[in-house]
Amino acid sequence: MENQVYINGNFFPESRAKIGINEGGFLFGNGIFETMRTYSGSIFKLSQHVKRLLDSCRFLGIPFEETEEELEQKIEESLKINQVFPAYVKVIVSSGEHGSSLTSVGSHPNLIIIIRKLTPYSRACYRKGFTGIVVSLRRNAFSPLPLHKSLSFLENLLAKREAEDKGAEEAILLNSEGYLAEGAISNIFLLRDEEVITPSLNSGILPGITRQTILQICATLKIPLEQRKVELEELLRADEAFLTNSLMEIMPLTRVNSHCIGGGKPGKITEKISQEYRKQTRM
Q1: Of 20, 160, 181, 241, whose CB count within 10 A is highest?
Q2: pTM value surpassing 0.90
């Protein structure tokens, strides 16, 4: 059976799901999205994802009037209709039909929910870890946009393409001040002398839901953690490093450019944090 896409109160087969050509998300990237996954049929940290999406809608001035509870119910309904496990869940709120002015925003935003079967990363990926490449593109540390998952995702796409063209799985972005920012699709953590270090939010990064979970796990496990501006050299000299997002969970980062991290193998503290994360997602 073809996947069913939710659009503004109705379900459509994915091949027939459409939006208008004057839609603001299509014309200008004026919209917000969230990407989630299920564990045993339930979305991990659903309420946090929904809250972040609604906060970002308010930031963009999109008059989306669904409450957190109402949006969560629609997402759950979409999961029941599609019955795919594990599921990849993408929720999009875009600004709706635009008028002739660039700044005009329609009074009826579009809500789109896409459910597809998730293909998890292989165990071999986690055993080997990812290779990262520092790309030429820079994240603007002074812009508020990196704090939001905007539909205008071109910077991330270009960074990821540059990394893949050079044989790496992830792009490592520095910011406009030259400090470490994030990956094209991930947040970055490193370890030095058994302390976890991650770029602070003022480095021009997304406040990732998985990132926040890692902060809480470190507190639970009493692992020292610091959020601050991070030099690239610190990553290159790290004892361990890993990447996070909701789909990949915690992916060891074992090489950056020509530098091996942790002897080119996933680290023990990374595995300890990963075990706790897996425990939480499967509770």
Answers
A1: 241
A2: yes
